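Closing statement on the EPU sub-project.
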Amino acid sequence: MEKLVINGPSRLQGDVTISGAKNAAVAIIPATLLIDGVCTLENVPNISDVKISCSILEKLGAKVTWISEHSIKIDSRHIKSTSAPLDMTSKFRASYYLIGSLLSRCHKAEVGLPGGCKLGARPIDQHIKGFEALGASVNTTQGKIVASASHLIGTSIYMDTVSVGATINVMLASVLADGTTTIDNAAKEPHVVDVANFLNAMGADIHGAGTDMIKINGVSKLHGNATYSIVPDQIEAGTFMLAAVASKGDVVIHNCIPEHLDCLTAKILEMGGEVEESGDSIHVWCNSRPNKTNIKTSPYPGFPTDLQPQAGVVLAIADGTSIINESIWESRFQYTAELNKMGANITAQGKSAVFEGVDFLSGAPVYASDLRAGAALIIAGIIANGETDLYNLDHIDRGYECIEEKFRKLGANITRVNEE
Ligand code: EPU
C-alpha cells in the first residue's frame, strides 16, 4: 500500500506551476467524441482521471495519442461503440459526460453509473431532465444509464439546482441538436466556460457561458483540426494559496487565472494573509498566525466547495473560533475527524462545522476520504509537528499532478513510500 510520509513542520517558500484543470479536462476529453475529425488538447493534467477518460475513449473507437507530457491528439472519426464499460465509468464521476457526448454524436449511449468521491447523495436528475427535454428517452437499468433519441431538438431547460455537471452535459447534448437550446440557472464555474470555449473553437455556436443563461444554437457538425489549451486549475491554485497561508509561507503560484480565485483571495485577506496578483501569477504570503474567519461554500463565484477542506486546515490552527457552512455536499467534513486525530478541535454536524483554533497540529496516521480531503491532509502534515503518514493516495492521484514533487520543491519534507 502506498502512503505519503510527511515530516513537519515546514514553511513553504518558492514557486509552483499549476497544471490544467481536472474538471475541465474530464469534460473536454469526452466532448471530443462530438468531433468528426482530429483535435489537439494542450495543458492536459497528467492525472488518473484523465488517463481513464482517454482509455474509455479508446474503447469507444477513438485514437488517443500523447504527443508530449501535457498534450494529446484525439481522433474521433471512427467511433465503433456507444457503450462505456461499468468497470471504467465507476472509477470517476465525470464519466457521465459520455452520455451527453454519445447522445449528441450517435443518438445512443449506454454508460455505467458514474463513481467519484463519496460526498453524500450525488443525483443526476437534472442531467436526465435536460436529455429528456431535448427528446431523448433515458432509463437506468442494471447499473447503466441507457439513453437514445431519434433526433434531438433544441428547447428551453430550467435547472432546478445549479449543477456544473448537468450544465455541461446538456451543453454537450444540444450542440448538434436541431434549433436553439437555452439553459437557465446554469452553473458559471470556469470549467463550464472552458468547455463552451472548446466547443466553439471546434465550430459550435454557444453564447453566455459564465452567466446564468447559456444559449446553444445547434450546428450540423464540429470540424476538429484545431488545438485547444485547457484552462489552469482553479482548485489546484487555491490549494497552494491555502497551503502558503497555513504554513506561514511565501509562495508564488504561476499559470493561474487570479480572477477565478477572487473569493479565496478575499478570505485569505480576512485570515491575515497577503495576496499580490500579477498577470497569470499570484503571490501569497502570511507572516503570523491566521485569523479566524467564517466560510460558506456556494456555486461560482462563491467560495468553492472543492477548497473547503484545505481552508479548514487554516481555520484549525487560526486564532479563535471559525464556522464553515457547506452548502453543496452532505458529507464534506469527513476530513475533520482526521484533523482531530492530529490535535485539531473541530465539531462537525451535518453541513456545518465549528473550528476552535489550536496552537499547533501533531503528526499522525490519517486517511484521505476523498480528493480534496487528501489535499487538506497533505497541508496538515506539512504544518504539523512530527511525522504524518497519509493513506488512500488513489483519491489524490485522481486530481493532482505530481503533488508531492510540487510541495517538495516548496520545501516540504514529503515522500511517497510503498509500504509492505
Ligand atoms: N445536483 C442535483 N441534481 C443533479 C446534479 C446535481 O441535485 O442532477 C446537486 C448535487 O447533489 C449538489 C449540487 O447539485 O448538491 C451541485 O452538484 P454539481 O452537479 O455541480 O456537481 P458535479 O458536477 O457532480 C462538479 C465537480 C465537483 C465539485 C462540484 C461542485 C466535476 C467532475 N466534479 O461535480 O468536483 O465539487 O462540481 O462545484 O466537475 C472535486 O473536484 O473534488 C469535485 C468533487
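Residues 23, 26, 93-94, 117, 121-127, 161, 163-166, 187, 305-306, 328, 371-372, 399 surround EPU (CB under 6 Å). With this model delivered, the sub-project is considered complete and its resources will be redirected to Aim 3.
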